[in-house]
Design a protein that fits this description.
Length: about 250
Amino acid sequence: MSDRTPADRFLDAAIGLLGRIRDEEAESVAAAGTLLADTVADGGRLFAFGAGHSSLAAQDLVYRAGGLALMNLLTVPGVVGVDVMPATLGSALERVDGLASAVLESSPLRAGDALVIISLSGRNALPVEMATRARELGVKVIGVTSVAYATQTTSRNSSGTFLKDHCDLVLDSGIAVGDAELTHENVPAPFAPASTVVTAALLQAVMATAAAALADRGIDPPLLRSGNVDGGHEWNARVFDEYADRIFYRY
């Protein structure tokens, strides 16, 4: 009998997934970071969207110490977390046709902006429609998804397509269908999801790439500093003032 604990096994699984995306997604990460840097340099704005637990990785990019101040959260009421009651409503809203178009029409997104759409399965109507409509508006779309779902599940969008089919760039999280890394002989279902830790790390790798790409061009990346270090609030106030027209979470 193995003496490895469930915690050991989960952490090993997560480390293995992180190593895979480091090696297999390197070119996509570099391209995504360059796309974001291009957008910033050209005067565009940055947005991130995720539904349900995918929203956690999107929120991790917004108003984040060490992150780009220009990243804004694109919100869809009822689907950006599990605080809505009942929590299952968010899952239902992801399958509603037309919702993404309505949200985009009332959002500040415009041609020349970049939108990161995070959806583990990429199969629901909301992320597929959001990617499709955003690109029609002239927005560059980076999709973050598990490509395996496209071959092992069916689409819930009327087009029969997945998020990955409507993006300028795709980052594959490599998460197995079902998002559960462990099994146990006395547990009736697989458990221990890793998509949040992996997707968040994947996107922070993209953001690091974007910041360095801007610096390499002689552009100071608009980074935020922690408010818990001396001078942090003053630093951030200057960034907010300089980029006030591209930051929407302050209003």
